[in-house]
Fold this sequence. Notes:
This protein has two domains: about 35-220, MFS general substrate transporter like domains (Growth Hormone, Chain: A, Up-down Bundle), CATH 1.20.1250.20; about 275-480, MFS general substrate transporter like domains (Growth Hormone, Chain: A, Up-down Bundle). The chain is built from 18 helices and no strands. It is mainly α. Helix 2 (about 35-70) packs antiparallel against helix 8 (about 195-215) and helix 5 packs across helix 17 (about 415-445). The longest helix has about 35 residues, at about 35-70. It is globular, with a radius of gyration of 21 Å.
Amino acid sequence: MISPPPNTGPVTPASPLPDSPAPQSPPDAGWSALLSAKYLSALIVMASGVGLYAMNLYFTAALMPTVIGELGGQQYFAWAATGYLITAVTATMCVSRMLAVQGPSRSYITAYLLFAAGTALGAASPSMEVFIAGRAVQGFGAGLLTGLGYAVIRGVLPPHLWTRGTGLVSGMFGVGTLLGPVLGGLFAEAQAWRPAFGVLAGLAVILALVTLRALPKRKPEPGQHHRAPIPSILALALTAAALSLSSTVTGIAAPIMIGAGLVLLVAFLVLDARDANGVLPRLTYQRGNGLKWIYLTVAALCAGVMTENFIPLFGQQLAHMSPLLAGLLGAVLSFGWVASQLFSANASARGARILVPCGAILLTAGLATYGLLLATDASLPIVVLWAAALLVSGVGIGLAFPHLSVAAMSSTSDDAEGAKAAAAVSTTQLIAFTLTSALAGNLLALGGTSEVASARWLTLGIAALTLIGVVTALMVAARRRT
């Protein structure tokens, strides 16, 4: 069980990892209740926000060669992703304070309109510099949407629907990775990248209008307003910048940038721990509390997710697959993630204590198996085994993830701290994506000119990160004994 420190209030009964047996679920605790008219519009708003963030990563990646072909500026190619990621990480740290000032409805409207404005600026860009500026604005809106997707669940859904709601929202990361490359590729083949961004901006505006009726317009009490932790936010933004840039430089500069990023990450933790209004909940830094293990396990699962960015490349290089088939192979992990969450969200509290470490173990075993099976001129049976191993990895993520998110938001009965704990899940995700992406470039380089060696270094290196998650997942489950 996640035990709160004094004066923070008792752990709510909704915690998915309690010591005592879970109470009987209310009669309306199933998927039909979650998807009923009472909650459906709010779920559309929350799930679509996370889906837009995830889909846009792969959607834009598929369009970038076409964008470069028209606008030029190939030397700024990496900045299109870097600018988006840095502002997205920064935005997630503003979510809890934004909710305190504006409330759920206004916060979501602001986030969707920022996303739409950045996307529209990208669509109308006359140069790569303007396009990157649009991506930065788009990233800030997307980061807000991701953080809000977790933070608002606590106030919109009753506790007995938190696990299913979180599973549905977090599953949109997998849906986004399935749809993004396909839709982006279709627009790219039609040489229609500007209309593609225009459609995306229009969708964001429509969702902002849906929000007007879907979410509560109430505002929290004035006493909940706190100053922003500027030093912590600045340190974490610089961490994201350093780690992102490490994959764009060569030679000795790459490890220097990674080292600088890790130093800045430590600086963030030190500064945030000393700030009463820090980015992460105070529970994170208190001795004996399990929230830190939850965040570390989330980070490890997200490190595993980053493998799928490279699976299509390995499929084409090592098995001579067509781009379409290689893309479908890359989607297997996301498919396993989304499908298994439908099962995992139905688990009891006792079952969740088993699923969290089992999920981390399956993810690590699947990635390690895939890495060991990588070979040059792979035959069809080997490719089938690749797909099976990746499916196991995705299933592992889906089994564990929704329970970790709910454990974070259930770690305190204080609404403000609970919202901050939930929003910090998305901050943790984006930092993990950034760190793993930065390390991936360096792991590939260890293989030298050998394609199969590079693929093995990357896959097994990421598996080593997820192995850390097995240890932290066991720590999360063990909290029931403390």
